[in-house]
């Protein structure tokens, strides 16, 4: 326990050295229409106003600790069928006690309510993927205005961020996380320690996110490119609400908060993760019906058959094969597929400890 505490203190020091401030001791914290004073837990809405299309309200909770410390943003509900993150944040809202908290948590319960209530996979009503349009635009379509609101109202006051995901309603997915490497050693190390603290044992090393802070595309990348350590985590899929997937996310967040010195909670830190040094999303060459022959967690050889695409009559039109040897991190588990959309995600494992 003392060793974990020393490690956590070191990482907090690294983050402060990287220029990430902690919450002001006595100042209220405001997100949208919600304001919380130190020692308060308040829920309400971040309003995305009407624009070229109809706006909406994003449900948020601020848990503003009685003591100063980091401001951790937790974002769920970016995609319509990703239920475990939403349920995990409901549980966390009930558990977090501002009187016992050092720092603050901003819970974005549903980043994109229109996709969840509309039961949409991947895309908002404007036809855009919210997690591809950050940092957004105040005068853009709905997805862009949501991204702008979260960037300016949630990411801006945060010092750290965890972006909570799972496989969408068509994706069979094994739990894994992304560690983003940017070349900024201080931010990269802080992000690495956060992803280890979260406790998922498969970690994708991601070196490919856009560097331009005005075209960040992804929620977590938007935080990182603004000097705030951030990680993306995945647990669950296929529209399920299984207890294991929800509990894994809840425990991971609490472990990160303990790692950051915000509260006392059990650590689920992974000491010997499986690092994924190369990963590729395999996209569909055609529109049709998908028949996978592998599932998540399967190991495949280079060129191994992942599945087949048929026409509406059942005739095979395409064989889809693995681009290299690795593990299937997710694979589509439902038949409909559109040309250019993901079919599977394959990761190559390495035994070499990565360096930022």
Brief sketch in words of this structure:
This protein has 356 residues and is an alpha+beta fold. The protein is 24% helix and 31% strand. The protein has helices at residues 2-17, 83-95, 113-117, 142-155, 185-198, 219-224, 243-259, and strands spanning 29-31, 34-36, 40-48, 56-64, 67-75, 102-108, 160-165, 171-173, 176-180, 202-206, 230-234, 274-283, 288-292, 299-300, 305-310, 316-321, 326-332, 336-337, 342-350.
Protein model, in words:
The protein is α+β, with helices and mostly antiparallel strands. The chain has two domains: 2-259, 3-Layer(aba) Sandwich (Aminopeptidase); 278-350, Beta Barrel (OB fold (Dihydrolipoamide Acetyltransferase, E2P)). Strand 5 (67-75), helix 2 (83-95) and strand 6 form a beta-alpha-beta unit. Helix 2 crosses helix 7 (243-259). The protein starts with a helix and ends in a 6-residue tail after the last strand. The longest helix is centred in the C-terminal third of the chain and has 17 residues, at 243-259. The chain is built from seven helices and 19 strands.
Instruction: Compute the CA-based radius of gyration.
Output: 20 Å
Helix count, DSSP H or I runs of 4 or more residues: 7
What is the total number of structural domains? 2
Query: How much strand?
Result: 25-35%
Which ranges are low-confidence, i.e. pLDDT below 50, for 5 or more consecutive residues? 1-21
CATH domain fold name of the largest domain: Aminopeptidase
Helix content: 10-25%
According to DSSP, the number of beta strands is: 19
Taken in chain order, the helices and strands follow as HEEEEEHEHHEEEHEHEHEEEEEEEE
Chain-averaged pLDDT: 93
Distance between the termini: 26 Å
Helix/strand/pairing category: alpha+beta
Sheet with the most strands, sense and barrel status: 13 strands, mixed
CATH architecture of the largest domain: 3-Layer(aba) Sandwich
At the fourth CATH level, what is the homologous superfamily of the largest domain?
Zn peptidases
